[in-house]
Amino acid sequence: MSSGEQPDEGSLTEGALVGPMFKLAWPLVVIQLLQVAYNVGDTFWLGALSPDAVGAVSLAFPLLFLVIAVGAGFTTAGAILIAQHTGAESGKGGLIAGQTISFISIVAVALGIIGYFATEPMLDILPADSDTEAAILPLAADYLQIFFLGVPFVFGFFVFAALMRGYGNTRAPMRVMAISVVINLVIDPLLIFGVGPLPRLEIAGAAVATVLSRGIATVIGFYLLYYTNVGPNIEFGHLRPRLEYVTEITRLGVPTAIEQSMTALALVAMTAMVVTFPPAVVAAYGLGNRLISLAFLPAMGMGQATDSIVGQNLGAGRADRAAKATWIGAGVIGGIMFVAGALAFLFPEPFVSVFVTAEAEGRAETIDYGVTYLQFAAFAFVFMGVMQVIQGAFRGAGNTKTALAFAVLGLWIVRVPVTYYLIFVAGWGTTGIWTGVVVGDVVGALTAVAWFTRGTWKESLVDDGEKGDSESKTEATDSSETESVAE
């Protein structure tokens, strides 16, 4: 398959819009669900090990996210470029994919080395009460260092999934992800508890299981890219770094990497405030975040689908179609997140208690804090969902700086300062944590939607000279656009 052909999900730039849009989006939602299955599996088995192990993973997550954010920014840049060149039928999708793979491989090795040696210094900067520091920080260090050694394997699957998403094929990465998750869920308890001849690695076993399963996914994904026709047509010559494309990937990727890093740093800042509370609060905060991320999956999937849809349509010169897709996605996700928020508010305890074992010390206190957090967060679910779709549209259009600006607004200008004020100045205690999260999400979403309506994002990254025959088809399809969107 040449890089200019449309994948089997259906054309995103011509004919019916809603059908191909949801065919692209639903595997991404499944991928996000499978992504959380990694974390849920770890949390479940580590919860059976000890509450301190759960707290350690919760503490480690923002620091992991900080390092992974850099690679995520560049994979997103590759997806954006492939989407727009696929829509424009420029024939350069394979070359851009190869450039993305080689560049991010170098970044992944560097970040893995840096993360391994920076683990203890990063943990040391977190202010923690004496009980938390003694019980949780050493466990978090064990988990982090093993994970950082496997960062190249983790990034490998991210690259594969992002490139396939930009191309418009989301089913292949979904299937690969499913295989990886099954492997992780099988070997997780074996390595954590030491079944049979396997050693009892405890929290380190969870990290080893994740790295191994990610590595297998990376091998399968790269095989599909190089030796099959399911995605961009990559040749080995495309892997040699070329300044023109590395510069473009960097230009788009740096703002997204900064956005993801700023998000991670905001989570670190929030965690730094949370760990001044007793371990039960730390555990509840981590469990609450995981439950929120689970409810958040449809929004993340639709947001990722939106960047591909917007990218391909802008590449094909279909800016109005890109805008319609964004509003459709935002409306659907708003409705789904409303239902999820209602369930979380009305029935929070069953969701929280499933991750805290009956024998766990301080179980009742952890559940109480977790229930309160989930009920507060439920009020922001709709805003979080719509924000993801709008941010996806900005990224798909290549407006990665705009997406960065709104991420900084919601997190650093609103969430972190409000939380600090409510906890340490107003004396709201744990209520200040939950309130700060909600206020940041609401303000960020409202301002992003207001900016999107201005329409200043509607511009293609692909030069007119690079476009294939997609623009010649645009006039023929314009007249039937209204009918096709309704199909």
UniProtKB/TrEMBL annotation:
One of its GO terms (cellular component) is plasma membrane. Keywords: Cell membrane, Membrane, Transmembrane, Transmembrane helix, Transport. Its main location: membrane. Residues 461-476 have a biased composition (Basic and acidic residues). It is a multi-pass membrane protein. CDD domains: MATE_like_12. GO terms for molecular function: antiporter activity; xenobiotic transmembrane transporter activity. The chain crosses the membrane at residues 60-83, 95-118, 143-164, 176-197, 203-226, 264-285, 291-310, 322-347, 367-390, 402-426, 432-452. Pfam families: MatE (PF01554). Residues 478-487 have a biased composition (Acidic residues). Residues 461-487 are annotated as: Disordered. It is found in: Cell membrane. PANTHER family: MULTIDRUG RESISTANCE PROTEIN NORM-RELATED, MULTIDRUG RESISTANCE PROTEIN YPNP-RELATED. This is MATE family efflux transporter. It comes from Natronorubrum halalkaliphilum.
